[in-house]
Amino acid sequence: MPLSTPTFSLRRFLQVAAFLLALVAFAPQRAQAQTWLVSTDAYVKLGVVDKFGQLGAYRARFVVTNQRTGKEYILVRDIEKGQNGIDVIYPSPASDADYFKATSGESGAALPGTYTWECQVGGKKVVGGRFSFSEVTNDVTLVSKQ
After folding, report:
1. What pLDDT does residue 47 have?
2. Would you tell me how many other CB atoms lie within 10 Å of the CB of residue 53?
3. pLDDT tens-digit profile of 47-75?
4. Where does the signal sequence lie (predicted)?
5. What is the chain's mean pLDDT, rounded?
6. What is the value of pTM for the model shown?
7. Measured between alpha carbons, how far is 66 from 56 in angstroms, rounded to an integer?
8. How far apart are CA 88 and CA 55, in angstroms?
């Protein structure tokens, strides 16, 4: 009988045991709880179009008024000939080159409440309307270890 056979089995057993021990020791730990991040952005797209392109190039002045505070936020855009119209987003990020801002430089915000808006071309109101932002809440569920 060869004596190497039992030694080989013992050596193999020890290698497998060491490998399994290493897997257990270096296995990632289970998360104690899952945490989620959430974001919600409210905005309104406002637009104006010279439907038949009769004006050519023109300057559109958008005015959004917060009905609760009376504060006006203004954005002026130049429309090139052939473009006919433009859409803008309120509130626009203050990091944009052009953004809705009050005369004080304060940027517009999507605060809960009612707003009116109008677009002026050549000093005259050509379109307008109203919109409101409701209060926004987010729900986050914490999934815990069971």
Report:
1. 94
2. 12
3. 999 998 888 999 999 999 999 999 999 99
4. 1-33
5. 85
6. 0.69
7. 32
8. 19
